[in-house]
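We emphasize that the prediction below concerns an isolated chain of 168 residues; any contacts that depend on oligomerization or on bound cofactors are therefore not represented. The input was used exactly as deposited, without trimming of termini.
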Amino acid sequence: MMTDNNQIPSPQVPPVPQTPQYGAPAPQAQPGYAAPQPNAYTQPAQPQPEYGAYAAQPGQPQPQQAYQQPYAQPAYQQQAYAQPGYAPQPNPSDTGSFGWAVLGFFIPIVGLILFLVWKDSRPNDAKKAGMGALVSVIIGIVLWVLMFILGFAIVGSATSSYSFGLLL
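Result of the prediction step, given as a token string:
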């Protein structure tokens, strides 16, 4: 057989997809990943009774139907599961020592910090440190108020006994 060298075989080119013209409907395909799926759980709309249809008529029994919302789900009732024999154990180092109250009294910011850090893990120690800090702050405020009143009393008594007649 003889082949013609002048003819070169042409490569196979895939067909170009046809793009729809502007305004033309797009071809229908299977829904993609982001396409909304049909809801299989929808219920048909239930007809509503007329106004006063269930009103009690004299001599007629009232129907014993409870109104049920069409899409309502029952309330979730979670049961409390307790582990037998595993009661919360108290922290043996949480003694509520008076030393934490003394530390909180003399350094109130440390007492406040200890209270905030220990309030869940060591509640007794946290309470003592917080109470010491609170007592320290209250006593400090009372002492400042007393010094302020005492300072005005001293200045007031000194100015009332001073004679202004010598300066004139």
